[in-house]
Amino acid sequence: MSEANSNRPKWLKAVDVPEGKSGDWEVKKTQKTNSKTGKTRRNTHLICCRHTIMADIDSEFLGLDPFYEHLKGQILITGLGLGVAVQGALDHPAVEHVTVVEISPDVITLVGGHYQERYGNRLTIVQADAHIWEPPKGVKYDAAWHDIWPTETHACANDWLEVKNLQRHYEPWCVWQGSWPKDAIERDKAAKAQTSTTVPES
Q1: What is the largest CA-CA distance in the chain?
Q2: Over the stretch 28-48, which tens digit does the pLDDT of each residue have?
């Protein structure tokens, strides 16, 4: 997380997953210094087949704002990625345990072990297809966050049909559910609509 995002809650911080490669996947560090301000921005990227799937940039944290508002108790996350949502959840004092469902064994190899070592038995990582995996009998999650789409275009296809189907699948086990990028886009639209309807003072 860059210095520009200093208004984020104190318990949120940039990820520190080490660089590495597994199959078609790679974790890579970058840094760039602003020639005007002299400030250096350091980021971690998750790359697949030479294409960046995600990075711990400011917009990634902002997109998780709806999720942060529901952090407590038992949490379900579909899609491990760089672990931005996982770290944010497990660093929150009200969260007891996080279950992550990730389909790629390479992503689990690159990223999962880092968090498993840090958080121990507060974290469970399940290698499975989030569309068909079902939680154990009797389990109830206080909140779930879904982030299994490589791009916004994939998630938006067919009027969010895949997002809706995924949330419908987990509805029996979750008190609240949110997803990237649907919640972030809807939140942005609402903010823009409020701004456009605000009458400036004369």
Answers
A1: 61
A2: 999 988 888 888 888 999 999
For the chain, residues classed under CATH 3.40.50.150 are 59-187
Contact between 163 and 131 under an 8 Å Cβ cutoff? The reply is no
Q: What stretch of H or E contains 179?
A: strand 177-179
Q: Are the CB atoms for 167 and 143 separated by under 8 Å? A: no
- Which amino acid is located at 62 in the chain? L
Which alpha helices (DSSP H) does 78-131 contain, by range?
Answer: 84-90, 105-107, 113-119
d(CA 73, CA 40): 36
What predicted TM-score, i.e. pTM, was given to this entire model?
Answer: 0.84
- Fold classification of 59-187 is Rossmann fold (3.40.50)
Q: What is the pLDDT of residue 3?
A: 40
Count of beta carbons in the 10 Å neighbourhood of residue 55: 20
